[in-house]
Amino acid sequence: MNRKGIRTHLKSKIDSWLASIEDETVRKLAARNTIVTGGAIASMLLGEKINDYDLYFRDQATAYAVARYYIKRFKPASRKGIACAISVISETDRVKIVIQSAGIASETGDKPYEYFEARPENEAEAFVGEVLQDAGTIEETYEETEQASLDTGEKEKDYRPIFMSTNAITLSGRVQVILRFFGEPDEIHKNYDFVHCTNYWDAHDGELTLRPAALEALLTKELIYVGSKYPVCSLFRLRKFIRRGWKINAGQILKAVMQINGLDLTNIEVLQDQLTGVDCAYFMEVIDKLKQADPVKVNAAYLVEIIDRMF
After folding, report:
1. Are 204 and 33 in contact (CB under 8 A)?
2. Which of 46, 205, 254, 308 is 20 to 30 A from residue 144's alpha carbon, by CA?
């Protein structure tokens, strides 16, 4: 898909989302400071499925305002009979959603969110869609997505919050509001794992920036690891890309392994942060078990035992 088509599509999508925000102050902040980057642009360039749209913000104030807006409109169901209390805090270098007990929250409470890799491969996409009560992975190309928008009208999407984790809010309409990172695109991309996801569109001026390194990676379908705050999630993501025909050399994997080596994964808070990442909640049942355990017992061997039992 060419540059003009991508710009037009993203402007239409973000305008639709902005129109759904009822608070004028929040809407104006978002209109000035939203940046779209990640897999959606890569998918459009390749003519592949658009799974979701990752929205980041230029400053902390906008991220905090948007988070507060959606928390007020979120209606979480109880998980295993436990009411879910949610709040948002603005720390020195981040905006964080605090969800008591569960760490994640869904619009539906009858089926707790679980790590979808525990399901058979052919069930994963359906399972995500079932739990989130939304589209899951959308089986459509860029052209089909745009045509559907013309047929049904993007304004019909209510963009309601349907799932929350510490670092992100998932909205209906396949929008992911990322809170963990904010800043100018170069600053945001310091936290990205693979270079092909670093193209971006700026809502402020409608400009699309296509980075040469990202385009080269897309042309060759080669994964180039540039570092991440969540290297554990990056290793999980490899499976998805490899199934789609991407390739990666051993050196790139070693980069992620070296980053992981600097983490204390026997620290439950560190492990939970790594497994949550920015857009998925991995192994939440494992985390629950570890929190119930004697801290003295929590080491690598104990973690392996818990994982083996659950999987």
Report:
1. yes
2. 205
What is the per-residue pLDDT across 193-206, written as a single tens digit (0 to 9) for each? 999 999 999 999 99
288-291-292 Cα angle (round to 5)? 90
Per residue in 188-234, pLDDT (tens digit) is: 998 889 999 999 999 999 999 999 999 999 999 999 999 888 899 89
Nearest-5° Cα angle at 44, 39 to 49 = 75
Contact (CB, 8 A) for 267 and 42: no
One-letter identity of residue 182: F
- Phi-psi category of 86—alpha, beta or left, where left has phi over 0 and alpha has psi -120 to 50? beta
**Nearest-angstrom CA–CA distance, 1 and 209:** 14
End-to-end alpha-carbon separation of the chain, Å? 40
Residue type, 282: Y
Segment (H or E) for 176: strand 175-182
Please give the structure tokens belonging to residue 195: 């270079």
